Amino acid sequence: MDSMTTQPKMNMNYLTLTFRDSLEKEFRKYYFHSSIHLTRLSFLLGLSFYSLFAFLDAHVLPEIKLELFFIRFVIVCPYIILILILSYTKSYCKWWQGAAVLTVVVSSAGIIVMTIISPELGRNSYYAGIILVMVYGYMIIKQRFIYASIAGWIVIFLYIMSLILFPGVDEKVMITNTFFLISFNMLGMFGGYALEYYTRADFFHKHLLQKERAKVEKANTDLEEKVRNKTIDLQNRTIELEQIFEAIPDGIIYTDQKGQIIRINSAFEKMFGYRLDEILGSKTKRLQSDPDVFSFGTDQFSAGKPADTKTVFEVKYTRKDGAFFPGDTSCTSVKNTSQQVIGVLRLIRDITERKKTELQMKKDLKEKEILLRELYHRTKNNLQVISAMLRLRGINLNNPDVTQLFKEIEFKILGMALVHQQLYESGDLTRLYLEKYIKSLAQLIGKNLTLPSQNVAIHVKGEELSVMLETAMPIGLIINELVSNSFKHAFPDNRKGIINIDIRKKEDNSIILTIADNGIGLYEKFDPKKDAGFGLQTVFDLVEYQLQGRIDFRNNNGLEWVVSIGEELYESRV
Amino acid sequence: MDWNGLSVLEKNYMNQEFDQIKVLIVEDEILTARYLIEELKLAGMKPLGPISRGENVIKAINEEKPQIIILDIRLSGSMTGIDSAVLIRQQYDIPVIFLSGDTTNTIMDAAKKIKNTAFVKKPIMFDELIQVFRQFTELRKYQ
Q1: CB of B31 within 8 Å of any CB in chain A?
Q2: Could you give the angle at the alpha carbon of A11 between the alpha carbons of A8 and A15, nearest 5°?
Q3: Containing H/E element for A302?
Q4: Any residues with CB less than 8 A from the CB of A522 and at least 6 apart, and which?
Q5: Which of B30, B74, B78 is facing A546, going by the closest CB pair?
Q6: Helix (H, G, I), strand (E, B) or coil at A574
Q7: Per-residue model confidence as pLDDT tens digits over A55-113
Q8: Among B44, B25, B35, B63, which Cα is nearest to B123's?
């Protein structure tokens, strides 16, 4: 694991053996609590040893045994017992190291006093007791290295002082004893150092371990939390999908790889009258009135092809009660995460109502068309009747001018009747082909306005363009007027003539109508404002006011009118 | 109605009655508009216009201050006569006489919703139009 290589180092003062960070406080606490029982036990041990040596006193130094007993049992042992008792106080943890130092110092001081008051044997050999106390202080009593060292050196100092202040010991013995004591103290320090170092290292690693464990536990809890949330999420998602599946108003069938039905939604149940248990495992073919029209078999799956239909098919289905209904049908393959097809969703929409409406709409539209055609037809007929009435009245008049006027009006009416005829013959009943209309209009005018002696031909050229009634009607009147004028004035004295009518559309959708004759033309000073008669004035008004266009004329081997009108001014009504 | 057959007395009476009242004509068919102009003149009114697009109505009112408006429902351009009347009513209370060959309920109802209006069917019977004018001018007298 990573932690093996990136294990953090102890941040420690290696002389005093203290952690430099907040760990020190924790360690002190830990060290006290882990040591306190052993400390008390070691007090008892020390007490026992200190007492047991009374037998040695009695045997080796019987002459001062009472003094020695006094030191042992009246000074040192009671002191240790006192500390032992105080170790049960609450504040002991604050001064227990000091108490230990004092214990070592007091016990050693007792022994030092014993050596001072002893005869030669005791004087020379009892220092060994100090060594025992040092062992006790460094190894057993759980003194920290620094305190044990302080205690050790105090004891050595006291011993040396006792040798100086109370001379009489053989110099060689003195040196030997001091040498041994100092050496032992040094060893003790090493031992104490090692002991505390390993205790601290052990603590440090325990601490690390604890931290790691906490981390792992935290990670575990987080993981559990995540798993729990994910599970709830998944459950919610499943419920959502379930609700969506059920809420879709189209019938849904879910089939497995074998093409067998495994799920349906409630819209399907309503649509077909089957419950799931009635058709579970059936093939969808069973629902179709013609099983071969549209079916998804297992072959699509085995070939590994997705069974999706890009388009919606209309399929005839059979209900449980045997009734047929048409359904818009589409299929979508359902894939697992490795893109294998695991089932097919078939969506069915009952289109019975829609088909009915469609049929009704078609019927309505047809009816409307028939009505409109009928209307145009009747309007045309009525206009023809009016024109016939005018003709009848006109024929019997004796005034040729009035007869001519009647004739002009008659053909204007017939020209309007033609618009209606073209409309009911046209495909969409709202627009008519201008060129075709003008051709028949020209034919009508040519046939009826030419005098028997006249030899004038009308040529109509133009592109196929369609306009609405509102545009065609004034154009018809304009042509009627201008062509009539040509017949009347352009070809006097039985001149031969040609009238060219040209109709075309420019790129900006404006329509250009040109009417040109090769007759005598207009006299030079003709002023349309002043000199136009009623008919021509009407033409100007129709172009400029009603069609919002322009009209120009020029003499160009005859008279040429150019009418340009903009885009159509009306929106379609039908 | 044969206007030329009216006696001088009748003409004088009408001239007095309508007293050069200013009538704005909004009609896209020039022949109908011209017919109206001639007839209104004969009846002693002062026809204004004609204009063919509903979009220009407000401008014409501002400039010419008509006292009555004759408003065709089907106009060239994108506005109908009804649209124009709604626009007129936002600023003016001038009486409006709608003209239309379309007398279906949709059109009639829409027209009725606008105050101070009357409806005259096409093709126009001039005496019917005169009756409507009378209603408005009578009303004016009493106000």
Answers
A1: yes
A2: 140
A3: helix A299-302
A4: A553, A555, A559
A5: B30
A6: coil
A7: 988 898 888 889 899 999 999 999 999 999 999 999 998 899 999 999 999 999 999 99
A8: B35
